[in-house]
Amino acid sequence: MFAGHFGIAAAMKARAPEVPLWALIVGTQLYDVLFLPLSALSLESLEGEGYGGAFITAFYSHSLVSAIVIALLAALLAGIRWGTRTGVILGLVTFSHWLLDWIVHRQDLPVLPGNLGNLPLMGLGLWTIPAASLALEIAILATGIWLYFLVCLEENRPR
Ligand SMILES: [Zn+2]
């Protein structure tokens, strides 16, 4: 999932305008941001080509337990900085990335960091049907942008 994550950030900005947009965007992309240094260290990797053709090994940044811990950390930091409500929102927005990835990823998402214990990998594999996956991403992105602009229009309407 790529563009869809931005849709979540935009939708959330519409619902919670007090939360900085940059924080929402960083939150929705946090696991992928962590993937970058880990892949530079060859601990994680992305192989294959084209949309839907990627084979992703992200056993640290994208394990279910890492995702929950990172989302809680994001919630904690945001909560300290901006208050409880924003903290909760950022935690949820951060974890939404894992849920969307779970829908599209092939079975490559582990439960524990480093795929400890070799538990069954997770992923519904919507990416194996690129048209369906792309349609989902566009739908989420379009909905997010639409909600965002509705709020902007509402705010700028002369009273
Ligand atoms: Zn991801």
Largest sheet: 2 strands, antiparallel
* Number of strand elements: 2
- Average per-residue pLDDT, rounded, comes to 93
Number of helices: 5
Helix content: 55-70%
The oligomeric state is single chain
What series of H and E elements makes up the topology? HHEEHHH
SSE class: mainly alpha
Distinct small molecules: zinc ion
Overall geometry: globular
Strand order of the largest sheet: 1-2
Radius of gyration: 17 Å
How many structural domains? 1
Pick out the low-confidence regions: none
State the end-to-end distance: 40 Å
Roughly what fraction of the amino acids lie in strands?
Answer: under 5%
Tell me what the structure shows.
The chain is mostly helical and 159 residues long. It has one domain. The chain contains 5 helices and 2 strands, in the order ααββααα. Strands 1-2 form a two-stranded antiparallel sheet. Strand 1 (45-47) and strand 2 form a beta hairpin. Helix 1 (3-15) runs antiparallel to helix 2 (21-40) and helix 1 (3-15) packs antiparallel against helix 4. Residues 31-32, 62, 97, 101 line the site of zinc ion.
How would you summarize the topology of this molecule?
Blueprint: H1 3-15, H2 21-40, E1 45-47, E2 55-57, H3 64-82, H4 84-104, H5 130-156
Antiparallel strand pairs: 1-2
Zinc ion (ZN) is lined by residues 31-32, 62, 97, 101.
Structure described in brief:
The protein is mainly α and 159 residues long.
Tags for this entry?
159 residues; mainly alpha; two-stranded antiparallel sheet; 5 helices; 2 strands; 4% strand; globular; binds zinc ion
